[in-house]
Amino acid sequence: MRPIVQSQKLRHVRYDVRGPILVEAHRLEAEGHQILKLNIGNTAPFGFEAPPGIVADMVHHLANSQGYADSKGIYSARTAVAQYYQSHGLRDTTVEDIYIGNGVSELITMVLQAFVDDGNEILVPAPDYPLWTGAVRLAGGTPVHYRCDEANAWNPDLADMEAKITEKTRAIILINPNNPTGAVYAEDTVKAIVELARRHDLVLMSDEIYEKILYDGSVHHHTATYADDDVLCLTFSGLSKAYRVCGYRAGWVMVSGPKDRATDFLEGLTLLANMRMCSNVPAQHAIQTALGGYQSVNDLVAPGGRFYEQIKLASKLLNDIPGVSCIEPMGALYCFPRLDPDVYPIADDEAFVIDLLRAKKILVTHGTGFNWFAPDHFRLVALPDVDILTEAVGRISEYLSELRA
């Protein structure tokens, strides 16, 4: 009998954030070891709770959330998202420009399935959140990685980006604030990328899920603000991180720019939205409450707040390790430190993080898992409280000292 195998479409699709390293972590847990998991930005296990008003609104609407909703989302949620972007300078945004999804992850897959044809090239940042690369491949496209410049606070290398545009290129993906680097792109950088898309007639896809998690006065610039009416821009965001409700799966994509030229694509996106019936209805009721009123995340990202203090501490402790350098994150929830190849001549960074896991029971993610070009980085989630974070980075420092020896 012939073996039953995975689809050929998956042959080049990877998601190493939950790949072999997590399998090894589960094996160690089954043996009785306690593993500190710093591989995923999941807020709940580290004591971050949803704002009470969001939970109350979901509970209040549960009885009326048993049936399917409009496939694009309930009206109150889409209205709240549209008004949010109107208040940020995108005054022409309407309810019809909003699609609600089961988190940004589902919407990334839907948009790329509706947009990408076999052989299309999509520019993706390196490092990236690996779902983008995987979803481009799954849709039949070719991800082409442009370099983000560590020496320039991890802003995209515009010359490298333009050099990689070909006649097959259809879109540019931005992740701002960036996961995994914590970069918040300068306004001039965002404007230059928009101008590049304008000049080459490309679509922009802007992942802005961390837009509210900013430190030390950093300013997030919505890509769509500069796209005007001649560059189609798809803006992705949601509740998972800023509102600490990762499990609720409440995200959205906002469409702006020359929608009259994108009628056929939008029909395809609506078709895919219809095929999944709708996103989960209870979580949609949280969106209006979340976007209006008091923004509790502001306390977390200010000095003294947990997000702020933990990201600063993690960055400092990593920089204190000989042969390790970490650009201080200006947004998001992660550090992406570099291991000096002259000090740590690592050839296989996945093997490195698995060895670290086995030795010190700390789970991080290797840099090439984020499509970085060299095995000289790893990503650490800065969500544990300061005591646990200090212990975690201390264990990493111990392991690296053993490597140096």
Biggest sheet record: 8 strands, mixed
CATH class of the largest domain: Alpha Beta
SS field, number of helical segments:
14
Spatial order of strands in the largest sheet: 2-9-8-7-6-3-4-5
The radius of gyration is 21 Å
Classified in CATH, the superfamily of the largest domain is: Type I PLP-dependent aspartate aminotransferase-like (Major domain)
Number of domains: 2
Helix content: 25-40%
Structural class of the secondary structure composition? alpha/beta
**Proportion in β-strands:** 5-15%
Second CATH tier, the architecture of the largest domain:
3-Layer(aba) Sandwich
> Ranges with pLDDT <50 over ≥5 residues?
none
Distance between the termini: 53 Å
Mean pLDDT: 94
Q: How many DSSP E strands?
A: 15
Topology pattern, helix = H, strand = E: HEHHEHEHEEHEHEHEEHHHHEEEHEEEH
The backbone outline, from C-alpha atoms, is globular
Would you give an account of this structure?
This protein has 405 residues and is of the alpha/beta class. It has 2 domains: 147 residues, Aspartate Aminotransferase, domain 1 (Alpha-Beta Complex), CATH 3.90.1150; 240 residues, 3-Layer(aba) Sandwich (Aspartate Aminotransferase, domain 2), CATH 3.40.640. α7 links the parallel β6 and β7. α1 runs parallel beside α13, α2 packs across α10 and α3 packs parallel to α10. The longest helix is centred in the last third of the chain and has 19 residues. The model has no long low-confidence stretch (mean pLDDT 94).
